[in-house]
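task queued by scheduler; priority normal; single chain, no ligands, no partner chains; default sampling; output format set to C-alpha cells
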Amino acid sequence: MYLFTSSSGVFIVDPSVSIDLAEKFLGSKGISLADLRIKGILITHGHHDHIKCVSEWIKAYPSASVFFSSNDKELLGNPFMNCSYFEGGEITYDFKFSNLAGMYGMSIYNDSELDIKVYETPGHTMGSVCYLFTAGEESILFTGDTVFKGSVGRTDMPGGSAKILMESINRIKRFDPALKIYPGHGPASTIDEEVRLNPFFEM
C-alpha cells in the first residue's frame, strides 16, 4: 500500500494495510492519520493482497472516491480468482467504485496542484491498471503487479495472459525514461532502468 500526500489531499494506492497499522507507521514519522484528508482510494487490480483492507478504509472515509476497473469485477466475488483462497481464506468483496475500464490515458483527478491519469495495463489480471501522478514538474508511476524491478507480474493465475501482459509492457516502455516507478511489491525503479535491465522489456 502507498499513501501519496500532496496539498490536494491524500490518495491511497492499493488498500492492503489496516488503518491501525497505517496509524502506527505514520505515528512513528510524527504524522497523524486523523489530520490527513483521504480523497481517493486507487486500486491497481483485484487480487486479495492488494485490496484486503478496502472495506475498512471505505467505511472510515466514505467521502473518498474509489477507483477500480470493472474488468476485474469477477475477481471480487470469487475467492479462487482473487487469490484469497490460496492464503487460507475465502473472502469476497462488494464496494461501489468509479469504473476505469476504457479510460486509458485519461485523468481521474485534476486540479492546479495534481493530475492523476490511469493507464490500463492488462495481463497480470484483465483489469490491471497503472496510475501516473504528476505534481508540477515531477511524475511517478504506480505499476501494481504489472512491472516490478527486474521482472513483471505473473500470468499463471486466473485471468492472466502472458501475451496481453507483453502488449502492456510494450506500451509502458515508451514512457519517459526518467519516470520513477513504484511497484506493488519490492523496490522502486525507473523506466530507463527497466528498459536496460529487465529481461521482459526485451521481448
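post-processing summary
- The CA atoms of residues 78 and 92 lie 6 Å apart.
- The longest helix spans residues 162-172.
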